[in-house]
Amino acid sequence: LNGILVQPSGAQDYQVIFKKVEAYNNSASGITIDDAQMPGPVTVGSITATASDCIVSDVGRFASAGVGYLATRRKVSFVLFNIHSSEAAGYATGIEADGSGATIRISQTDLDSSFSQARTGASGGQIISYGDNFTAGGTIATEAGPQPTQ
Fold first, then answer.
1. Which of 2, 16, 99, 102 has the greatest count of CB atoms below 10 A from its CB?
2. 8 Å CB contact between 135 and 127
3. What letter would DSSP give residue 110?
4. Nearest to 47 by CA among 74, 84, 19, 85
């Protein structure tokens, strides 16, 4: 069960903005940006999404195998998900970028209550942290690419 699933189907560029959105009791994901329904090849279309001041959570603490914020790219040139001043709680993974060309940029976000704070998928992905997030004793490393300046 996804809280919010953004899955456009046309061959164009999309921009999605979430401001003060709350999605509770979602075992698969809180907010997912996914290009699976968009036509290929990878040279056509993109998705850019921003979540600001949002909360996503699952029912139980670490009870699900889900992901709080998920960016998946398989077909288009890129999927970019910017997450600012938000929270992911109760998921196995707080944020995940899955697929080469899937990028998550994260700042001032609380991932303390997710078992694994951030990961990239088996087929690649990029997570870029501005270094000002709230984590349980750790930091969110930049998985690939340069560290943004503050």
1. 102
2. no
3. B
4. 74
Any idea which residue has 């998550």 for tokens? 104
Rounded to the nearest 10 degrees, how much is the dihedral formed by the CA atoms of 71, 111, 31, 36?
A: 20
- Whether the pLDDT of residue 82 is over 70: the answer is yes
Rounded Cα distance between 88 and 90, Å, is: 7
**Residue carrying the six token digits 């697929």:** 99
pTM here is 0.87
Amino acid identity, position 51: A
Q: How far is CA 77 from CA 24, 85, 125, in A?
A: 31, 27, 13
Per-residue buried b or exposed e for 108-119, using 16+ beta carbons within 10 Å of the residue's own CB? ebbbebbbebbb
Sign of CA dihedral 107, 19, 56, 81: negative
Spatial distance between the Cα atoms of 115 and 112, rounded to a whole number of angstroms: 8
**At residue 147, does pLDDT exceed 60?**
no
* Residue type at position 79: V
Q: Which residue has 């943004």 as its token pair?
A: 148
What is the CB neighbour count within 10 angstroms for residue 37? 10
